[in-house]
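Task: fold both queries, return tokens.
Query 1:
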Amino acid sequence: MTLLQFEVTSLLKRLMQQIEATRDLRELVDHLEEALHCEGVAIHRLTRPEKLERYRQRKAEALVDFDSTLCEWAYPLMGNPTEGAQEAMEELHDQGWRIVIWTARMDRSIYPLSERLQTKQDIEEWCAEHGIRYDEIDIGNFGKRVAGICIDDKNIHFCGDWGDVLRSAKALRELDNEKFEETEEKTRGGNWDRSWAQGNWDMSCGLDWEDCGGSDYQGRAG
């Protein structure tokens, strides 16, 4: 190796170290920002009674998905409310559930905090426009939350029969692929037609708020 090659190699190594340090710093800043916006996080080791109390509180929560559950599929826009959604949220509230909107739009591995906070504001405005009751919008800081129930177009209820689960999983995978193929076709060229989100393209999952559970729900998701 010549002197010039050695110097270039050393320079590249130092440059890569600086890039890695910058990336680590950015991740640290993101985590600190998220912590500032994360309510209810345990900042110290909880005692067993404190953990049980926190668990009891969480079990009163109903996690409700957004796309194809509260609203018809129109991603990345927001569609109209699914039929019966507004009344269902009122009924859940009357039953004593604390309603938490829990959506993949808040996936922290895809969307930085700034985008998730904007999405939170967008969902708040959408809920206000359509009269949808809720108590919280999760911005993706908790990971998998303890909750009493989860309402989602992709959920598969496990009743001890893995064969039933596998059949449902296959049907959901096929429907999900079809939905995103049509999404790509509709959005090719960047044509985000607002009328798309107003019902001209209906790809809702056919969610029936009168019957959201059990094996008869399999395969109806979008």
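Query 1 returned. Query 2:
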Amino acid sequence: MIQLKRVYEEPAQSDGERILVDRLWPRGLGRADARLSAWLKELAPSPGLRRWFAHGAPAWEEFQLRYEAELASPEKQAHLRALAVRAAHGTVTLLFAAKDTERNNAVVLKKVLDKQHAGPAVMPGLPANALHQAIVENASDGIVFADSEGVIRLWNKGAEAIFGYRAEEAVGETLDLIVPERQRERHWEGYRRAMATGESRYGRGDLLAVPAVRKDGTRISIEFTIVLLRDESGRLLGPAAIIRDVTERWQRERATRERLAELEAQVASLAGREGAPLQGPR
């Protein structure tokens, strides 16, 4: 069972495991007084998202969407699964410092955990969300999701291998992380247009080939397809991309084209010589 409680409230035996899920330590609270079983700051909202929200009620709906997208990342899913196991074997109390007991990160976290626990089974003993997550985590292709502002919210192992950034380095950064500087203006022009209209000419499964840049500065060639994701109300959340590194294939094709061009030039040169008139002695 999972329940919520302000960390400043008096600890009780009915709390079971007391787990703090804020990124920062609560002000004015001694560590001994908190009586924590664990402090899972790894599951807290990113610093940027926390500052953006600042527990503001007007931003609550958008905060939920952004935070849930962050929680979909592979490393956070690993912590969520471990937390779900704890809850399956006893009471877990998620602790938070916010004064607003109805609009805070712990409320969203509990909702996500409850939703995952209640997911329908698609295989015996395997919830649907667990199967989906396993596919995303272990795919060799990169799978990346960015929100409507172009901030990366999901970054799988395939993306780590392609671009060289670990998930914790990429999540929370913008897509400028992998877009070459010369292509950024064009990229953001198309991105903002797609977010404004809710449509993309590449959202029908068309394969897009573009240059990209790795963490070490190496330029690579990638191909990807995208899908625009929406919530239950139809609101656009952002694009998810399935990416493949095709640098080696592109280099082979370029070498082949260059070799063909050389051969064609040689053939043209020979043909020119054979067709030239013979010059007799003067």
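Both queries returned. Flag for query 2: Confidence is low (pLDDT under 50) at residues 119-123.
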